[in-house]
Amino acid sequence: MPFAHIESLAGVIRTAISPEDAILNVFSRVASAAYRSNAREFLDGWASSPGISGEAAALALLTAASARRDAIASESVEVVWTGPASHEVPVRRTREVLLELIGEANLRLIVVSFAAYRVPDVLNALKNASERGLDVRLILESSEESQGRLSRDAAQAFESLSNAARFFVWPAVLRSSLGGLVGALHAKAVIADNTSALVTSANLTGHAMTANMELGLLIKGGQIPTRLGAHFDELVARGFLRQIS
């Protein structure tokens, strides 16, 4: 429900003697049928908790709504795109966002990709990040671990970073096989400082940056970048991702 509706609902609840007493006034204050349903659900919850005053119920409602509003305000989501533009959704280009994330990072970068080649600007940006003291981790597919699915190791595109970044692969022996199928490290993402994350269909290739039709989301703030960073940290700690030289 919009915060203004919740404030109105809380105002009625605060002065109500009981949930039943609040129902008629609430329905006159909340116009939308969907919002009325939400209000009724809250009142039913209040009714099932004897001993809670209207003042306490209103305070609980406003506290939860304020926390949600602050969480939404602290998180932004943007569409990231490579390909033909439209007038429906404002989008940002994949290459632009990728370089921005690398350039703005202060502590560490996690870069995940299936394929990688012909991206000199990305290579230079990662090299500069390493020189700034960042912990740069590249999680990439390899021809050996993919059992030939990838003809060229993604890490070869970043050979000049061998002393500046750590490289990880998904060992073939740990890839679950269902009906004879061999899994691929097909994820593509960039996580910066656990505060920003780009989740995208785009590989780290020249085509993906400039020519393909690629779609992703840039998330800044909130819990998603933190949880993604922790997710890959756990995969490394548990050995699902293995560091290579």
Structural overview:
The chain is elongated. It folds into 2 domains: 3-73, no CATH class; 76-244, Endonuclease Chain A (Endonuclease, Chain A, 2-Layer Sandwich), CATH 3.30.870.10. The strands form 3 sheets. It has a 9-stranded mixed sheet, sandwiched between helices. Strands 4-11 form a two-stranded parallel ribbon. Strands 7-8 form a two-stranded antiparallel ribbon. α1 (3-15) packs antiparallel against α2. It is built from 8 helices and 13 strands. The mean pLDDT is 87. With 245 residues, the protein is α/β, with parallel strands linked by helices. The N and C termini lie far apart (53 Å). A hairpin with a 2-residue loop joins β7 (177-178) and β8 (181-182). The chain has helices spanning 3-15, 19-29, 33-47, 54-73, 94-104, 120-131, 206-210, 224-237, and strands spanning 76-82, 91-93, 108-113, 116-117, 135-140, 166-169, 177-178, 181-182, 189-192, 196-200, 204-205, 214-220, 242-244.
